[in-house]
Specification:
The chain is mostly helical and about 290 residues long. The chain is about 85% helix and about 0% strand.
């Protein structure tokens, strides 16, 4: 088995474990948090499944990129809801439950919308795409939808069992997720150094589009706007690797490098955005201090 095939299999198992853990933490109530705000829900769907993929299409058409780089950018563009979003918000200034609901909602919507986008990509590149849409649907359903709903069901009907297994599963899935990122970076580091400014520019432009679309479509509430911007920019690298390996088996290691590069650049861009946004909000908070009780 080649290294890329091994990494693809490991990524599939990792996504399953992470989504099961998240379903157990959020439960049906947490998953539905975003659904109780239908206007914001629609805006999030537009930002995640319309604006970012269209921005990626423009970037890949305008810039002279290899097929592998374009495939990596396209995969990250059409697969929102990264498993790390909820964990990042727990330790950060954002709304962790809203981030978790965003992630869960995007995971469920991906069951339908990711195969739809892969169908569009397959039509654009009919000679290189091999997996039928039904296979992509099954992959997304088994990798994200099924474990997420199973985790929420366990939390709802067997809360004691879910509480007992949640912490160890969370630790294991987090370690696996870190392992996927480290493996991709280790494999792709030499290629990253040779990628050239054009490939890096393409990834930066896509990350900026994801952040800005989440920011402007995230509503007027500062915490929610910041949360949606970060959540929208953090795409699902694990599922992207799995689906690229499934749908474009002839893609080279450069596609994995592109995915890893986006993960790193989006994290850096998110940290810069958070710092600037909080700094901008600070004067407003000082001019409107909370009244004492």
């Amino acid at each position: 088995m080649e290294i890329k095939e091994l990494l693809t299999s490991f990524a599939q198992i990792t996504v399953f474990a992470v989504m099961l853990s998240m379903g157990m933490v959020l439960g049906f109530e947490g998953i539905a948090r975003l659904w109780r705000r239908p206007t914001l829900l629609v805006r999030c769907l537009i930002a995640a499944f319309v604006v970012v993929p269209l921005a990626a299409m423009v970037v890949t058409m305008v810039l002279p990129l290899s097929f592998d780089v374009r495939a990596g950018i396209a995969a990250m563009a059409i697969i929102p809801g990264a498993p790390v979003t909820y964990r990042k918000m727990v330790k950060g200034p954002g709304d962790a439950e809203l981030a978790g609901s965003f992630q869960a909602t995007m995971a469920l919507m991906s069951i339908v919308l990711v195969p739809l986008w892969f169908g569009i990509i397959s039509a654009l590149y009919p000679t290189v795409a091999t997996a039928p849409l039904a296979t992509v649907f099954k992959q997304v359903m088994l990798g994200q939808g099924l474990p997420l709903l199973a985790g929420a069901a366990l939390s709802h009907w067997t809360p004691d069992l879910a509480e007992e297994f949640d912490d160890p599963l969370n630790r294991i899935s987090t370690a696996m997720l870190v392992g996927v990122v480290l493996l991709v970076l280790a494999m792709g580091l030499p290629l990253v150094l040779k990628a050239g400014p054009v490939s890096v520019l393409a990834v930066v432009l896509m990350a900026a589009a994801a952040l800005l679309s989440g920011h402007f479509l995230g509503g007027s509430e500062p915490v929610a706007r910041h949360t949606i911007a970060i959540a929208n920019a953090t795409r699902n690298a694990g599922l992207a690797i799995a689906l690229i390996g499934l749908n474009f088996p002839q893609a080279k290691h450069a596609v994995l490098t592109t995915i890893a590069t986006y993960a790193v650049i989006s994290a850096i861009a998110g940290a810069i955005y958070t710092r600037l946004y909080l700094k901008r909000q600070a004067p407003s908070a000082e001019s409107h201090p909370a009244s004492g009780l």
